[in-house]
Amino acid sequence: MSQLPVINREVFGRYAGLSLPRHVAYPMPTWWHAVDATEAAELRAISTKAGRARDLSLYLHLPFCEKMCRFCGCNRTIVRKDGKSGAGKVERYLEALLKELELRAADIGQIDGRRRVVRQIHWGGGTPTYLDCEQIRRLHERTKALFDVAPDAEVSIEVDPRVTTAEQLNLLHEVGFNRISLGVQDFDPEVQEHVGRIQPYEMVKKTVEDARAAGFESINFDLIYGLPKQTVGTVSTMIEKAITLSPDRIAFYHYAAIPDRLANQRGLDHSALPDSDTKLTMMLEATVRFGNAGYEFIGLDHFAKPDELLAEAMKNGQINRTFQGMTTGAELDLFGLGCSAISVLPRAMYLQNEHDVNAYADKVLSGEDPGVRGMAFSADDAVRQAALMQLYCHCEIDPARLRREVGVEFAEYFEKARPQIERLVGDGLVQWTEPGGVRLTFPLGRVLMRNVAAVFDGYLPAEAAWTGMEQTFSASA
Ligand SMILES: C[S@@+](CC[C@H](N)C(=O)[O-])C[C@H]1O[C@@H](n2cnc3c(N)ncnc32)[C@H](O)[C@@H]1O
Ligand code: SF4
User: Cα of 64 to ligand 1 centre, how many Å?
Assistant: First the structure.
């Protein structure tokens, strides 16, 4: 076994395993409310208010998959390719998505008659490569026609190696995609069998080779740890196997288990879940093994090569944390299109579309606004979001940066949280910094980042960092 960083496991044990938010959004979706069409339009319009005029990021949700994975927590719908009604359902959804693109191009795609520059496009799912080549081309060409997409925009897509062909990859690159994310999850045959996703190493290797031959600039792997049947040994092997394929980035996700809400997860043996202490060792193995292979540890659960955009974004302060994990583009207004997609105007608002595929298509095609849940930020939400974003992205809260971003003094603003911060300092999770901010320690504070974050979350009780919450917060991708 590799040399793992020393950690106080007694302290870790007191904080670990609590139900706490991972803050892919602040305020968390739990606190959003239902919105009607008027409010949805008002929320979006914040983006075009005078003085804002940010460039754009577009997220398109493609929810279709051919087969269900038992661990999956994404918003996806299984449509078998050989089924009778499937093709019609997919086409209708695409029709709605194209219509929503047109609506957004008209309402937020321009300011004062000038088209706003799109700096990022991301297709997520479900499985975007469920679409055939003609559908992929149609959707992306239309996006480029409707929006002013920068020539050097980051254009990325999530692919499942089991269903993605070299032909699709060549086409994706030809139309403008330059970054790709592979759902790898785990290489271990026993784990794959248990989670219902058979995907041998050779298959992933072939997709990587096809993507490189097609010309993709950056390849990401999604890996999951904490699944039933995984051990420290299997996870270490998974990490080493991933390294042999030299991905540019890795998202090392903790398995979000919510079987009471997700029927597909009930097929997994949750009595065989690794315990918190074992999961800690898995995470530490990842930091050491990826670190030894030259990757930088980013945020809560990402790794990237030092010359990769994500690592560079961390250095130049442009790193961001969204529903897609750690991303670049902190300076952009993000608009989500498609069912369940979320729009994020940093420090201003969230808006989520109708969750169900058919209900989403019905709404858009009948001229109704698909936005159903969201919220506008209070001044306090904006301050706390800025502080939490710093904590998750940069592992510290820097008073000067907070002053610059939201105009408040850290010590004054978080005066009431001082006893909790002191307790975290006493337990060795954070340290005070010279300018009076706080920094996570490594490894203890880093792996308990969510507990530290709980202290700055205005919607949680003061003791949440130690007690956790009754409700499950493991909302995943
Ligand atoms: C939309 S999928 C990726 C594309 C494609 N559908 C696939 O699976 O290859 C997004 C990622 O979310 C992660 N994910 C899904 N369910 C999860 C869960 N319950 N806990 C943690 N990560 C999860 C997986 O790593 C998955 O690759
Ligand atoms: S993990 Fe990916 S392929 Fe599997 S069901 Fe979820 S979205 Fe579909």
Answer: 13
The residue count for the chain: 477
Q: Is 70 in the pocket of ligand 2 (CB under 6 A)?
A: no
* pLDDT for the residue 298: 94
Per-residue pLDDT tens over the stretch 330-377: 889 999 999 999 999 999 999 999 999 999 999 999 999 999 999 999
Nearest CA to ligand 2 atom 2: 126
Question: Which of 312, 327, 390, 315 has its CA nearest to residue 57?
Answer: 327
Ligand nearest to the CA of 186: 1
Nearest alpha carbon, ligand 2 atom 4: 69
Counting as low any pLDDT under 70, the low residues of the chain are 1-2, 472-477
Alpha-helical regions (H) of 332-376 = 357-365
- Whether 164 lines ligand 1, by a CB cut-off of 6 Å, is no
Q: Which atom of ligand 2 is nearest to the CA of 162?
A: 3
Q: Give yes or no for residue 325 CB within 6 A of ligand 1.
A: no
Helices (H), 245-348: 276-292, 309-315
CB of 207 shorter than 6 A to ligand 1: no
265 CA → ligand 2 middle, Å: 12
DSSP helix/strand/coil, 93: helix
Task: Find out whether the beta carbon of 127 lies less than 6 Å from any atom of ligand 1.
Answer: yes
Measured CA distances, 131 to 48, 156, 177, 283, 287 (Å) = 32, 15, 15, 35, 36
CB of 255 shorter than 6 A to ligand 1: yes
Threshold 0.85, pTM exceeds: yes
Q: Which of 152, 129, 295 is nearest to 210 (CA)?
A: 129
Centre of ligand 2 from the C-alpha of residue 37, in Å: 31
Round the average pLDDT of the chain to a whole number and report it: 94
pLDDT at 244: 98
Contact 61, 335 (CB under 8 A): no
Centroid of ligand 1 to alpha carbon of 477 (angstroms): 7
User: How distant, in Å, are the alpha carbons of 13, 291, 416, 429 from that of 380?
Assistant: 32, 37, 14, 25
Domains and CATH numbers, the chain: 29-376 (3.80.30.20), 379-467 (1.10.10.920)
The number of beta carbons lying within 10 Å of the beta carbon of residue 7 is: 19
Phi then psi dihedrals of residue 122, to 5 deg: -135, 130
CA of 316 to the centre of ligand 2 (A): 33
pLDDT at 470: 78
DSSP string, 129-193: GGS-HHHHHHHHHHHHHHSEEEEEEEEEEEE-TTT--HHHHHHHHHHT--EEEEEEE---HHHHH
Q: CA 454, CA 465: separation in Å to the nearest integer?
A: 5
